[in-house]
Request: fold
Amino acid sequence: MILFFIKLYKIDLRDLKYKNLSHYKTFNDFFARKLNDDARKIGKNDLHLSSPSDGTISALGTILQRSNHCQMICVKKKLYDLKLLILQDKYLKESCSYGSFITIYLSPGEYHRVHTISKCLLKKLIYVPGELFSVNPKRSSEIFDVFIKNERMIFFFETDFGKVLLILVGSILVGGIETRWNGELQKSENNSVWTFENQSIFLKKGEEIGYFKLGGSTVICIFEKNKFVLNQYLKEGLKLKMGDLLAYVKK
Reply:
C-alpha cells in the first residue's frame, strides 16, 4: 500500500528522514512521515513569515469587515464568520481585528506536518471536534460550511510584531490532528471542545507543531491587521513548500 501511494503521488524519497520503508510500521506512519532537516529552506529573516506547510493556495486576501465588528473570510465565494471559525471573539477584540488570510490545501500525497511561521509564543490552543467533509477546492460543495463544520485545531500565536492564528482543518479520511501538546490535554468523554492556555510556550521559527493523520487537509493562516503584508507574488493555485515566504512585517 505504501509503495502504491508513493507511485500514485510521485513522492520524492530523497527528502525523507527515514528512507528505508521498513521503518514505517503502518501506512499512517508513512503518511505522517518526517523530512530531512535540509529538505525545506526556512528564511532566517525575523521580518519574514514563512509557510507552515506544503500545499496549494486555495484562497487569500483581505478579511471583510461587517457591522458589530463581525469579520468574514471569503473562500470560493463562501463567507466564513471568523468568530464561528475560532469559537470565540475574545482574541478578536484584544487585537482589534485581523486583516488578511491565506488558505493552504494539502493534497493526500504532500508532506502533512505543520510548522511555525515565525518565532512566537503559543498563547492558546483549542480543539474543535466535528465532521470530515472534503476540503478539496474542486470537490467541496458550496452548500457546506466545511471549515465551520469540520474537525479543527486552532493555534493562537503572538510574535514580536503582531498576532497570528493558524487553523488546522481536518478533511475526508483524516484520522486525526495531532499536536505536540495533545498528551497534556484530556478530551472529555462526550468529545466536546477542549482548550489549553495555562502557559505561554516559546517556539522557534520553523519548529514543528503538529501533523495530520491520513487524508487531504487545510491550514488557514490569519494575520493581525496593520501588522503584516502578504507576499505580493502569492496567488490562488500557487504551490507552496513549507518555509516559502508568506508575508512581511509591515514597516
User: Anything to note?
Assistant: The mean pLDDT is 84. DSSP finds five helices and 18 strands in the chain. The helical segments are 2-9, 27-31, 82-86, 90-94, 146-149.
